[in-house]
Amino acid sequence: MTNKTPTTPTLTHFDQTGQAHMVDVGAKQDTHRIAVASGTIRMLPATLALIESGNAKKGDVLGIARIAAIMATKRTSDLIPLCHPLALTRVKVDFSIDAEHASIHCTAQAETVGKTGVEMEALTAVQVGLLTIYDMCKAVDRGMVMTDVRVMEKQGGKSGDWKVDKI
């Protein structure tokens, strides 16, 4: 019986001296890459009713949150240190209302043809989309909670495809 020590993945944003650096992806092949992230914001039922009815004082909450999410996705490398700037080929942001749980679920999909993945871009879209909902509704509901933000799947690249197991 052989006793193998499990290998621990290495973090790649550190050089040989332990200093943070931007990873060199120059030798990688360009591939079609997709990432999907999601998250939820919970609120008072009355707040959700304002959003659904279109009667929020600041306007179309979900429409503005969608635009904010897309804009933020394009600026991810400006927000996250050491994140590569990417030429995105597609960003899709969807919101679904869950009246039973007084919440809104955000799903974002980011795509590129490039040398590195788009997980950070998809996560940024979700976070900014949810933050925009909070910002537009905080006057009536400061207790909103953003939760369960995570990558749901990724496709492409050297490490291959990955999808979250059913929750």
UniProtKB/TrEMBL annotation:
Catalytic activity from the UniProt record: (8S)-3',8-cyclo-7,8-dihydroguanosine 5'-triphosphate = cyclic pyranopterin phosphate + diphosphate
Residues at the catalytic site: D135
One Pfam family from the record: MoaC
Sites where the protein binds substrate: L82, C83, H84, M120, E121
Domain Molybdopterin cofactor biosynthesis C (MoaC): residue ranges: 22-157
Superkingdom in the source lineage: Bacteria
Protein keywords: Lyase, Molybdenum cofactor biosynthesis
Pathway: Cofactor biosynthesis; molybdopterin biosynthesis
Record GO terms (molecular function): cyclic pyranopterin monophosphate synthase activity
Gene Ontology terms: biological process: Mo-molybdopterin cofactor biosynthetic process
EC numbers: 4.6.1.17
Family: Belongs to the MoaC family.
HAMAP family xrefs: MoaC_B (MF_01224_B)
PANTHER family: CYCLIC PYRANOPTERIN MONOPHOSPHATE SYNTHASE, MOLYBDOPTERIN COFACTOR SYNTHESIS PROTEIN A
Chain's role: Catalyzes the conversion of (8S)-3',8-cyclo-7,8-dihydroguanosine 5'-triphosphate to cyclic pyranopterin monophosphate (cPMP).
Subunit and interaction comment: Homohexamer; trimer of dimers.
Protein known as: Cyclic pyranopterin monophosphate synthase
Organism in which the protein naturally occurs: Glaciimonas soli
Organism placement in taxonomy: Bacteria, Pseudomonadati, Pseudomonadota, Betaproteobacteria, Burkholderiales
Gene name, Swiss-Prot/TrEMBL: moaC
